[in-house]
Amino acid sequence: MSVVGCGYLGAVHAACMATLGHDVVGIDTDKAKIDALQSGDAPFFEPGLPELLEEALATGRLAFSSDVSDVRGAEVHFICVGTPQLPNEIAADLTFVDASVEALLPHLAPGDLVVGKSTVPVGTAERLTTLSDEADTGALLAWNPEFLREGHAVKDTLHPDRLVYGVPAGIEGDRAVKLLDEVYSATMADGTPRLVTDLATAQLVKVAANSFLATKISFINAMAELCEATGADVTLLADAIGHDDRIGRKFLNAGLGFGGGCLPKDIRAFMARAGELGVDQTLAFLRDVDAINTRRRERMVELAREEVGGSIDGLRVAVLGAAFKPNSDDIRDSPALDVAEQMRAQGADVVVTDPQALENARTAYPELSFADSALEAATGADLVLLLTEWADYLTLDPVQLGEAVRQRRIFDGRLALDPVVWREAGWVYRSLGRP
Ligand code: UDX
Description:
Elements: E1 2-4, H1 10-19, E2 24-27, H2 31-38, H3 49-59, E3 62-65, E4 76-79, H4 95-104, E5 113-116, H5 124-134, E6 140-143, H6 153-158, E7 163-166, H7 170-183, H8 185-189, E8 194-197, H9 199-230, H10 234-242, H11 263-276, H12 285-307, E9 316-320, H13 335-345, E10 349-353, H14 358-364, E11 369-370, H15 374-378, E12 383-386, H16 391-394, H17 398-404, E13 409-412, H18 419-424, E14 428-431
Helix pairs in contact: 1-3, 9-11, 9-12, 12-13
The structure holds uridine-5'-diphosphate-xylopyranose.
């Protein structure tokens, strides 16, 4: 099989498919990335991926290339390229999906199966099918959305919660299902549920799932706003409602909200697509989901200003965490860096640290300052902000950190620290949604 696009999704998919016993070639236009992967270096931080790459490359079943003609001979071709948000618009940019399919067309043989995994606006698969038919490739197209989380990508790919195959009707669809069942035979042997749908449903499943997750987070963050207005505690509230099986405690962690390369842009692209389909009112609530999420970042800055009497101008601020979430080096739409940048713009001297994302953060935010450790960042600080809940930060010693800072003030943007422990060590502890 071939895997076109070797980013967070494709590189992991290619390595996992080789581990399952398939012969895989990963394709990407970025030659440096291909060279790194071919020599067993993961071009981004993903736990377990370096070991998996090494193991799969050693079997000889995995190779990488920047020459798309190397897909020849593969029967199944996965499209794993990115669909970022268009600049100054809420819709998705499909340039990479279109370009990868166009690049594949001349190399497809009759009976080949092209499988979209990228998150796309519903209707894209149908349009790509027409492209392939017009080029008379004789290839089939299916949509098999990917639900992996960064930081858990290997496990999520090898042991997903479910497999979804969106296929065309009739015997073509039957053939696509048969091929995909061969691809995922080891996964299905584990008892993973597999759902066969039409193309439209499969494309919608992915954005529906991400919209639900984003809504869940913004729901609890809306409750956090109410807790702030009433002196209630959103963590206890989440625990209490989460005991109801129908609600569940997962994805009810209040705080700075969601970021990353998926949830924010997916809910926006979904709204844009609904508008094009003439049902924009249907997803109007996602505008609020997005707005609640953005407000949390502003509230964090406000909380800091409130605590120091109105202005953070000239204060030294230590920011713990730059990645959009722990166990990732991804800083796309990172709530932590957004807050850091807002505080810098208000005159604070902001020093950011992160166990894995420093290099990415430095490149994207050259005007911020950076430190290699939490202790170094906190030295001389007037405020310490915990904005990404890396395990390293949850075990920081408040006494030791207290000796490094100028003022013992900690703001917990992820409601991840124990207020009692920090207050006992002489710190002012404040968080979002908790008294
Ligand atoms: C998400 C989906 O989970 C995944 O299924 C999909 O394939 C891609 O998008 P990912 O972006 O890797 O995955 O991160 P996820 O773990 O979902 O977290 C998203 C954001 O929500 C992070 O910024 C995280 O900090 C935040 N979050 C998560 C909360 O604020 N509260 C929570 O309770 C959970």
